[in-house]
Amino acid sequence: MKAVHFGAGNIGRGFIGLLLHEAGYEVVFADVNADLIDAITAADSYDVHEVGAGGRTKTVTGFRAVNSAADEAALIEEIATADVVTTAVGPNVLRFVAPVIAKGLLARSSGSPRLAVMACENAISATDTLAAEIRSSAGDSAVTVDERAVFANTAVDRIVPGQDPAAGIDVTVETFCEWVIESTPFGGATPVIPGATFVDALGPYIERKLFTVNTGHATAAYAGFAAGHQRIAEAFADPEVRDLVERVLRETSALLVAKHELDPAEQDAYREKILARFANDALPDTVVRVGRQPLRKLSRDERFIGPASQLAERGMLTDDLVEAIGVALRFDAPEDPESVELQQLLADLAPAAFVERVTGLPPEHPLTPHLVEVVASR
Ligand SMILES: NC(=O)C1=CN([C@@H]2O[C@H](COP(=O)(O)OP(=O)(O)OC[C@H]3O[C@@H](n4cnc5c(N)ncnc54)[C@H](O)[C@@H]3O)[C@@H](O)[C@H]2O)C=CC1
Ligand SMILES: O=P(O)(O)OC[C@H]1O[C@](O)(CO)[C@@H](O)[C@@H]1O
């Protein structure tokens, strides 16, 4: 069995590549970073170091690498003969990997089994987004794409911090990981990936994950940044930061319980487990990494505006989420292009125009006046 995985970064090597390897797949990493591809090609194995209680080191072997910017023909051939294609490139990059996946699908022999395509990104329905880009790239052959591929959405959860350059291609990760994949598109013939969980309906899982883990983590990052902390564990040890994170997650939990009819006690336990993960002092994670790309994180369906808008539509409380959004506006990290753009937009636009442009919410939405107020008063 062969898997082609786009994005040989933190999640690629430290999570999805590892689980595919453990499932018995030969993994072909595709990436645009030539130095990384050379390093992977030169290695026979790499280690994934799990840190924190019960952490172990796992070794990945049986992989190859293709430079997707330089060797499209080789990549098309790999996709044409693969069983699985996964991505962990970032939600905004999916449109750039779609054309070569379309070409690989069209190059498959018509008798081949259908290719399982799964985007492993922090975004709702990321595989649907990728599939739409692949169909659009295939043009008149879009029907053939759907005959030859099965598209399944996924939710991925493992904190993988930025890596020490001296570690080569080894990766340090937390012990926890969860890969949830929707099963219905496979019609009963799901790929065999023991480390993944297949579920009929992914909606509750991805919203629970994004609106708990990611909302909480990003709140810790932005509040930590505003308070002058550099590391996430250090920020989370600050009582004021932790208090805001806990308040915000009580609001998102109220939404998740109401919307998905989750058991409140189970959601409380899930939230507590996640708070303990943020406190993991063995993870060398920074507020700048976790806060990266603030414009993506403040967009319409993402971890802040997604839950806050739904709460407001239900007439439920949003005060703590709005406070966290206000704190996010203070994220000013020159090394992050979206942070620079965020600060420029704040300087250039009136509060109402800023809210509409960044969050995508129309003026008449019940959340909008609260956001305009927080932008105006910052
Ligand atoms: N790091 C984490 O803790 C988690 C990250 N995620 C999600 O996983 C995805 C990847 O995140 P990370 O691994 O942290 O990022 P990363 O920056 O470590 O890795 C992304 C990789 O994609 C490569 N890439 C960029 N453009 C490409 C292209 N056109 N074709 C092929 N490769 C390309 C980059 O060179 C890089 O190696 C994101 O969607 C993120 O939200 C999800 C859960 C946890
Ligand atoms: O690109 P993003 O959305 O910041 O992804 C990284 C995030 O994913 C998570 O690791 C959770 O799985 C976050 O806690 C982390 O900050």
TrEMBL record:
<dbReference type="GO" id="GO:0005829">
    <property type="term" value="C:cytosol"/>
</dbReference>
<dbReference type="InterPro" id="IPR000669">
    <property type="entry name" value="Mannitol_DH"/>
</dbReference>
<protein>
    <recommendedName>
        <fullName>Mannitol-1-phosphate 5-dehydrogenase</fullName>
        <ecNumber>1.1.1.17</ecNumber>
    </recommendedName>
</protein>
<feature type="domain" description="Mannitol dehydrogenase N-terminal">
    <location>
        <begin position="1"/>
        <end position="193"/>
    </location>
</feature>
<dbReference type="InterPro" id="IPR036291">
    <property type="entry name" value="NAD(P)-bd_dom_sf"/>
</dbReference>
<feature type="domain" description="Mannitol dehydrogenase C-terminal">
    <location>
        <begin position="202"/>
        <end position="343"/>
    </location>
</feature>
<dbReference type="InterPro" id="IPR023028">
    <property type="entry name" value="Mannitol_1_phos_5_DH"/>
</dbReference>
<keyword id="KW-0520">NAD</keyword>
<dbReference type="InterPro" id="IPR008927">
    <property type="entry name" value="6-PGluconate_DH-like_C_sf"/>
</dbReference>
<comment type="similarity">
    <text>Belongs to the mannitol dehydrogenase family.</text>
</comment>
<dbReference type="InterPro" id="IPR013131">
    <property type="entry name" value="Mannitol_DH_N"/>
</dbReference>
<dbReference type="InterPro" id="IPR013118">
    <property type="entry name" value="Mannitol_DH_C"/>
</dbReference>
<keyword id="KW-0560">Oxidoreductase</keyword>
<dbReference type="Pfam" id="PF08125">
    <property type="entry name" value="Mannitol_dh_C"/>
</dbReference>
<dbReference type="GO" id="GO:0008926">
    <property type="term" value="F:mannitol-1-phosphate 5-dehydrogenase activity"/>
</dbReference>
<dbReference type="InterPro" id="IPR013328">
    <property type="entry name" value="6PGD_dom2"/>
</dbReference>
<dbReference type="GO" id="GO:0019592">
    <property type="term" value="P:mannitol catabolic process"/>
</dbReference>
<feature type="binding site">
    <location>
        <begin position="3"/>
        <end position="14"/>
    </location>
    <ligand>
        <name>NAD(+)</name>
    </ligand>
</feature>
<dbReference type="Pfam" id="PF01232">
    <property type="entry name" value="Mannitol_dh"/>
</dbReference>
